[in-house]
Amino acid sequence: MDEESRALLCLSLTKGIGTATYRRLLERFGSASVILNTQRADLADTPGIGTRLADQLVRARDQVDVYVDKELALAREHGVSIITCTDKRYPQNLGSIYDPPLVLYVKGETSPGDVLSMAVVGARRCTHYGQSQSKRLARLLGQSGFTIVSGLARGIDTAAHQGALEAGARTIAVMGCGLGRVYPRENRELSERVSCQGAVVSELPMLTPPTEKNFPPRNRLISGLSLGVVVVEAAHRSGALITAHWALEQGKEVFAVPGQVDNPYSRGVHKLIKEGAKLVEDVSDIIEELGPLAEILSTDEKGEIQDPRSLALNTQEKKVFALLSSQPKTIDEITEESQLPVSNVASTLMILEIRKFAKQLSGKRFVKS
After folding, report:
1. Rounded to whole angstroms, how far apart are CA atoms 106 and 59?
2. Could you report the per-residue pLDDT of 100-131, keeping only the tens digit for each?
3. Which of 22, 39, 135, 140 has the most crowded Cβ, counting Cβ within 10 A?
């Protein structure tokens, strides 16, 4: 980690330094490393800082190696990467919100394709109907090329991650604790599966416990990482509604899946619909509401949703990629259907494998990844 990244990590570990404070300091001093090396009097003279916060910054500067090295060692121990807001790996959607975290702890990998993400959230206590709808929508969104974002909580969140994993899609779990912990504990295995097929992320230091105060700020990251938020089930007072309100503040779309009128877990969702959230019955309802992105995620003549990843492919790659699905096909079958030379099909499949668009199974059979 270079000097500037270490300085950013140190600032993020300093109590009282959030995005707004960092921006004020950055505007005056130019970089995180300069901020840490600035005299106390100059720090205190910065609007919005004052003597108390200046003292904290000076103490952080004096202990920077201790703070940073300890946190980096914990991250390495748990297989976690620390990405600063200046890193090219920092998620594009998250970087565009008003108050993105200075650093993001990531177990797994971020991907440029995560710009096409949709959050699916809802109640921890939920009905079988809610769980099944969450899993169904996440699976269909994943098959359409979306990364599924949720909070790894019990109930609707768990079902959303499971649906994405079943679809072979990327999924991101945003935690309300440090990544040195897993919460809830029963989702430890699910957390590992998510990190292998996407990422588990947090803005909190590694050993931060899952206290109640951490979850409302966590919810702004769920919406911030996404183009919109789908609320499946939520009581009148629910964390999922907080996520929806964050989405509105961030200029994101809000979608709601209707439930039974006499179900208390439907009240929050129905309230969102009354307030103007888009009622969702199927994935097409979500895609139509996305405006210009609806052209990218359009359907073909059979009414099937085209995979938006094909936009990054050349003509030949698109042709082969379009023939892949969850049903395995041999090279001979793909060659016959594409009417391309077998050598071209073989080389194209190799490229698609490298880019993780396709996966080779036993017997040289291929499926869409």
Report:
1. 27
2. 999 999 999 999 889 899 999 999 988 889 99
3. 135
For residue 120, the cross-strand partners are: 230
**In this structure, are residues 67 and 10 in contact, taking their beta carbons and an 8 Å threshold?**
yes
Tens digit of each residue's pLDDT (9 = 90 or more) over 152-186: 999 999 999 999 999 999 999 999 999 999 999 99
Prediction pTM value: 0.78
- What's the start-to-end Cα distance of the chain, in Å? 33
Q: 316, 339 in Cβ contact below 8 A?
A: no
- Alpha-carbon span 4 to 32, nearest angstrom: 6
Give dist(CA 211, CA 232) in Å, integer. 24
Residues 272 and 200: their CA atoms lie apart, in Å, by: 28
d(CA 41, CA 7): 19
Half-sphere exposure of 155 (CA within 13 A, CB side): 20
pLDDT tens per residue across span 49-87: 889 899 988 888 888 788 899 999 999 999 999 999 989
- Residues near 363 by Cβ (< 8 Å), separated by ≥ 6? 328, 330
CA distance 215 to 91: 20
CA distance 230 to 286: 9
Strand order in the sheet with 365-368: 329-330, 365-368, 358-361
CA distances from 245 to 36, 219, 283 (A): 35, 9, 22
Please say whether the beta carbons of 289 and 283 come within 8 A.
no
d(CA 19, CA 232): 31
Domains of the chain: residue spans and CATH: 3-77 (1.10.150.20), 113-169+209-295 (3.40.50.450), 313-368 (1.10.10.10)
> Is residue 85 within 8 Å of 8, Cβ to Cβ?
yes
